[in-house]
Amino acid sequence: MRRIWLLVCGIALTVAGCTSESTTPTTVTVTATPTSEEAASTEPTNDILASQFHPCEVLTQEQFEEAGLVGQMDQSTDLGSLALGCSFSRSSLDEFSGIWLVSTDKVNRQYVSQLNLETIDWGTISNPDIYIQEVSENIRQCEAASDYEWGRLTVTYFESGEGWEPEVLCPGAVQILDQLIEEIKGTK
């Protein structure tokens, strides 16, 4: 604070000394720069969801375990050029016999709908924009997704067999996606 007053006085003296002998008072406005604590409080706390990212390079093993995913099967599953992801088994193999894929890609719900794949709103209290989608009527697979400007974050569940049964296949994927989003936002 003392530095600001010295700065104000110095500017006032300089301006007064450089002007002609005018009787018009000079007004000087000084804007204080925020302290590092104030600046830190105005910056976004987390920008992971601002652009596409590789989930297994950003999230920790503890965060995946908190969401119920253990036994990472592949650090970087080959998903083509538009998607980044990795696969896991679930902590309770009695409850779920399939595998889980956590990924980001450059598509959105509108694109999925244009492929004539069913999408269903399945939001949670903390993440109301989550939706699920079928991948194929013949495959036992469900993808839970949340769209962002750059694309989406998804959790996909695969198990052997046939048939799209959202009530059976999707609750686990939605729960994991919801928990991972909360981990990323830092609200958990």
How does this model look, in words?
The structure is a single chain. With 188 residues, the chain is α+β, with helices and mostly antiparallel strands. 31% of the residues lie in helices and 24% in strands. The chain has a 7-stranded antiparallel sheet with strand order 1-2-3-7-6-5-4. Strand 1 (69-77) and strand 2 (84-90) form a beta hairpin. The chain is globular, with a radius of gyration of 26 Å.
Percent of residues in helical segments? 25-40%
Q: Strand arrangement, largest sheet? A: 1-2-3-7-6-5-4
SSE string: HHHHEEEHEEEEHH
Total strand count, please?
7
Low-confidence segments, given as residue ranges, are 1-22, 24-34, 38-45
Q: Report how far apart the termini are.
A: 38 Å
Structural class call reads alpha+beta
Beta-strand content bin: 15-25%
- Note the total helix count: 7
Radius of gyration: 26 Å
Average pLDDT figure: 78
Question: How would you describe the shape?
Answer: globular
Sheet bearing the most strands, described? 7 strands, antiparallel
Task: Briefly summarize what is shown.
By secondary structure, the protein is α+β, with helices and mostly antiparallel strands. The protein is 31% helix and 24% strand. It contains 7 helices and 7 strands.
Q: Which helices and strands, and how do they pair?
A:
Layout: H1 2-18, H2 36-42, H3 55-58, H4 61-66, E1 69-77, E2 84-90, E3 99-105, H5 109-114, E4 119-121, E5 131-134, E6 141-148, E7 151-158, H6 166-169, H7 171-185
Antiparallel strand pairs: 1-2, 2-3, 3-7, 4-5, 5-6, 6-7
